[in-house]
Amino acid sequence: MVFTRFGLVVICVVLQGCAASQAPLYDPVTWYAVNSGSRLTIVVYDNVCKRRHGNVRLSGRRETAVTTCGDSEGRANVRYQLEGYMASAGDWVERSRVTQNQRIYVQ
What we know:
107 residues, Immunoglobulin-like, three-stranded mixed beta sheet, 17% helix, 45% strand
């Protein structure tokens, strides 16, 4: 019985170590998406970490903080696209080299 408990504890510790997330190579960069019109949703893709950040909802005439991976110079490299039926009509908008606290106006 003691061996079984010990074995179970060892297995749990090993599995937790495998499930740990990998630390980013560089510090994250927080920038702001500003919507000057009515409410809309955009899809943000991070070119540094090579991953999609999902749907970001932008309220009308407000700014929304978005945090993405930064490169070796502390800048984010992102692109975005309108979400939904309008996404098929439009291409990705490249916004390379976004700095900390920079605002991007989305229309």
